[in-house]
Amino acid sequence: MRRPLIIANWKSNPATLRDAGRLAAGIEKRIASIRGVETVIAPPFPFLAAVARTLKTSALGAQDAFWGGAGPFTGAVSWQQLKSFGVSHIIIGHSERRRLMGETDEMIARKVTAVLAAGMHAVLCVGEAERVGDEIPDAVGVQLSRALASVRQRQLKKLIVAYEPVWAISTTPGARPDSPENAFRAGTYIRKIIAGKFGAAASRSARVIYGGSVRAGNIRPFIEAGAMEGALVGGASLDAAEFACIVKNTVR
Ligand code: PGA
Predict the structure, then answer these.
(1) In angstroms, rounded to a whole number, what is the distance separating the alpha carbons of residues 7 and 52?
(2) For position 1, what pLDDT does the model report?
(3) For labeling, which of 4, 7, 9, 78 is most exposed (least CB within 10 Å)?
(4) Residues 64, 97: contact at Cβ < 8 Å?
(5) Measured from the CA of 233, which atom of ligand 1 is nearest?
(6) What's the pTM value of the predicted model, to 2 decimals?
């Protein structure tokens, strides 16, 4: 069985370089002795260098990457630049980027394709804005299929699909975490779609993780339910002690 994976998505936090260094150091100190869990810290771009110097246990992540390499792309940060920085994991298609920055399925597909072709881990976020009842809406499958349109079977081992229902993200008004049972259902649904495209055996090399209001007190049932191999953590990753507890409570 693979080690579970916990990814800290700091979003556009904290406000200063100094606080970013402190937060990274605080997390690293607390998780140094925890075995059996992989961790990734994804700070904002300007703090990557400082955070990279602090990391001993966690891998370095980024929250987006442009699909082109070096070139005339004003304001863009390319996967190539991130790779040269030691970034191994790139979050792609987060619902905040889809909603606030107008990212389309097509743009997300180009990013996933470029990042996987570069041999980096793509953390592809999918998730519905609303859910009525327990059924996982088709919109999730559509997001996933479109994002994977140009992905090759052999690249699946670097693919991580983060199921993040938008209504469960802690900053959404009225947010509540999904239930472990429904997250299990979502995990199974996502695996089925990957298996439909690449075959059941190949689909197992991709990982599926859960995101949305994950805390130290609720992570365990998501992992124990069985379909989720980790979590993408937003708000709680800004508190070193809370984040370290999430990592600790994930150990199988
Ligand atoms: P949250 O955010 O843990 O604060 O709900 C998760 C995410 O948006 O990645």
Answers:
(1) 15
(2) 79
(3) 78
(4) yes
(5) 3
(6) 0.98
